[in-house]
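re: ur question from yesterday

yeah so i grabbed the chain u mentioned. its 409 aa long if i counted rite. heres the sequnce exactly as i have it in my notes:
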Amino acid sequence: MYDIAVVGGGASGLAAALAAAETAEKAGRTLKIAVLEKNPRVGKKLLLTGNGRCNLTNRNAGPGRYYGDTDAAAGILHRFPPEKIIRLFQSHGLLCRTLDEGRVYPYSLQASSVLNVLRLSLEAAGVETLCDFAVRSIEATHGGFALISEKKSVKAKRVIVACGGKACPQSGSDGDGYALLRPYGHTVSRLSPALTQVRTDPKLVRPLKGVRCMAEAALMQGGRKIKTTRGEVQFTENSLSGICIFEFARFLGSYEPKTLEITLDLAPEYRAEELERLIRTRADACGDMPAFAALEGILCKPLAIEVMRRALQGASVSASSLTAQNVKNAAATLKQYRFPVLGTAPWQNAQVTAGGVPLSEVDENLQSRFCKGLYLCGELLNLDGECGGFNLHWAWASGITAGNAAAGI
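ran it thru and got these structure tokens back, copy pasting raw so excuse formatting
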């Protein structure tokens, strides 16, 4: 029998196992710990994070950068500020570097460096890794639990469930963890993809496929701003993409998509009146050139074409023949380039899950309030962060919390 079995070899599960082993060692004890992973190797999703660079935390991490049960998670986030996570990795030999907007990466800028350090540290601590072990049920037994897969089972005195949410199911996190917890009375709030592309009318974005631009983006409902962001927007075959668009995805689960739209301010540093003067001056200089030429000093050519087409409602005129109303419409379109919201990209595209097991169902150490010896951590819980290392930060902080507590019994 194991002292602790961790279900899931992702970021939070590996952090939990390592924290449990280190807590026991500091107390002069040795615990038998196993990580049960459904994939042939641990850390598959970890290798995909940060476009393969692993944005492992953010120096601005704190409750204000999260959604869901933020009040309940605040204590854990305060106990594990970014500097503490960085020092923890450094103690295991991983140097870190901070890049734009507080994003922290391994010094090598390779996600494999993070995973390799974790694996080596777990091996040195005597933690066993049992791969190709997909846990189908967790049954309470006398003195602990039985963790059962299709072909085998193991027993453990305490269990940490860290098998992720539903995002990126190709990595192994397909939502099966919720089913493991329901027999113990745990509930699951509404789940929706977060940090992913937002689908829109393909006719509006297909001509811009592959184009990138800087913009101030707003998620709107009936003229009311739900959230605004600023950054790079990317246009795909049927959706809007880019980090600033990803931030909108989690909100779509709370609204009827057809009532929403995204507006892009393609020149946020300029007022509409200033843009009108710039467009008029440029249009007069362009003479018989196509009308979109009046925008090429502001936008790249494909975007200039589509913005002017929208402003002129498809009419084809020369730059110099643009009327005052045409110029006004062009400036207005630049400031509010509108796209209807049709929903999010599927779970396969999502980086994280919005929703999960309410934190009210676990105590301050993430032990289940319904079953002693059962712990939850990571994306499984109802907490998701903004893009930029915040979700991995929660994985480390919650995993360490659960591991410390499980080892301290």
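noticed a couple things. Residues 197-344 form one domain. also The chain has two domains: 2-192+352-407, 197-344.
anyway ttyl
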